[in-house]
Every structure is written in C-alpha cells, then in structure tokens.
Amino acid sequence: MAGGNCVYVPLRVNPQTSVWELSFDELEKAISEKTKLIIINTPHNPTGKVFSLSELEEIAAILRRNPHVTAVTDEVYEHMIYDGKQHLRLASLPDMWARTITISSCGKTFSCTGWKTGWAYGHADLIKPIMLANQWVQFSVPTPNQRAIADVIEQASKPYQGYASYYAYLTAMYQLKRDHLVASLRAAHLHPYVPEGGFFIIADTSAHHPDKAYEDIPGPTGESPVTRDWAFAR
What is the pLDDT of residue 117? Predict the structure, then answer.
C-alpha cells in the first residue's frame, strides 16, 4: 500500500542446541536510513520460537540506535507458551512503548481463525494513522464477533475445566498435543525442532530419500519433476 520493500532476516537453527536463533548483527546491518519498521513475530510462526528477555533487549537496543524505525510485533500465539516459558512484550521494555505497535488476535486463542477478529494497540501517535487507514481497507467489521470476543476475554481469566484460567487450560492442552506429535515424529525417524510456543512443528526429513517416482508425478501446476518436499509428502 505504501510502496515499501521487505528485507528478510532469517532465523537459523543452532546445530548444537536445535534452537532457532536470530543474528542481531545481521538484523542491524539490514537497517538503513530508508528503513521504516521491523516486524517481530513471537511466539514465531512456524518455528515456535519464543523470544527471550535478553533477545528482546537486544532488539530494543538496535531500535534505540535507529530512532527512525518503528517496531510491529505479531503476538497472536501469546497464550500458547510451553515448558514454563513466558511471553514477553517488546512494548513493555524501557523506551519501547512509543516505538511499538502490538498486534494480536482472538483467532488462535479462541479457535475462531476464520473470523479474523483482532486488535492493534500502542501509543496514540501510532494508532491514529492505523484507524484512519483501516476504515478504507475494511468496509465493515463483524460486530457480533467483536461483542462476543469482548465478553470472552473477560471470562478467559476465570477458572476453567479445573485450571486457574482458560489460558492455563489452553497451554496445557496444546502442550500435551505438542508432546504427542513430537514423540510420533521421533518414532517415524524424523528430527523435530521442538517448538516453545504456537501450534506448528518443523521436522528435519533429510535422513529420508523419497523414490524418484514421487518426483516425476506432475505437481499442481503441471511441473515435473517436483521439488523434494513434494516428493517426501507423497
């Protein structure tokens, strides 16, 4: 909409720890005088990485050295955190409230992804332009859904299904499912990178070698041979 160009800074797996890591040197080198904002996704989709306090502090330090840059944080998996880890907000760090737009959603937390009901919050100077632009992006909003979500957010902090809150129940339920799928992948001789949050699991399939016949079957657009991931899935 604004004619911007994306510059991507990848997460990479540490081969010793199987943990996804971000190079802060690489991140800072990607910032120029033309950079307007950086987008941080935690818990991350699809790796499941949860950024720690020290990592967020590194990002905050980079932002302080680049005062022309605004941060946008995608935190839609904020209530799906495992193994006792904690979701932390970049906006909560010193000097970051006025520099950060925080985005979240009811879709993942309350299993209603199709309705696309979410929110953005931050300093008034950042939110006002979003409100002005958004009225031309979305013609109308699902008012009944907004009312329902407003009600359920109040209810979600109360005891639920034997847990201290709905959020505690959600975390426990998804951690059980994560652990079951991780065990299943290992039983299938795949190497899962165990996610710290979210509900996706990435696994290393390199120990398996699909038969060439699976590569030669044309893909969805008629291409042949298909890439290795298609062949492996088949």
Answer: 87
